[in-house]
Fold these 2 entries.
Entry 1:
Amino acid sequence: MFAQRLKELRTEKGLSIQALAREVGIGSSSLCRWENNQADVKGSQLITLARFFNVTTDYLLGLED
């Protein structure tokens, strides 16, 4: 669920993976792996993304709608 929500939020803002990486200070390779379900996100990075998109970490993880 995280991969899908991350991609949806990113595309809704019209950002490429590289642009989002610059905005939040996370490597673009990490973002790419997360969106493709190839790696797990760390807690601090999850919080960074939730703050950027103005959503909860539970929303990003698919625990709430």
Note: The longest helix spans residues 2-12.
Entry 2:
Amino acid sequence: MSKMELKIKKLRKDAKVPQRATNGSAGMDLYACIDQSITLAPGQLAVVPTGIAIELPDNKCAAFLYARSGLGVKHGICLSNGVGVIDSDYRGEICAGLCNVSDKPYTIEPFERVAQMVIAPVLTPDVVETDELSDTLRGEGGFGSTGKK
């Protein structure tokens, strides 16, 4: 398997290049590239710049931004859009849309790790409109239809 390359462009001199905390980390930490602290009140949203742009290897992959579990579980700081999707042809600054779902204010400090970025494959099937779908055991059973175990 050939080695894949992710190109990172610093848009600000002091931006930090994303990196994995350990060899086993799936995500690369993204850092707040801000000049001063941002305090998020409970329920407040903020767009936090990282100071970087990326070039993915091709259109068969995308970058996905996820909350950092420590920020989410300990402080209620999550991504406001659930998961951020960065398409292969986007060349603008990577920003993390954050929200505070806790009942306490949280202060984001300059160069704090605010999100994690995972590069993953993307399937791009041909879309075919049809009048029929194949039958399955579950069928049209929706939320909770498989029962609680």
Note: The mean pLDDT is 94.
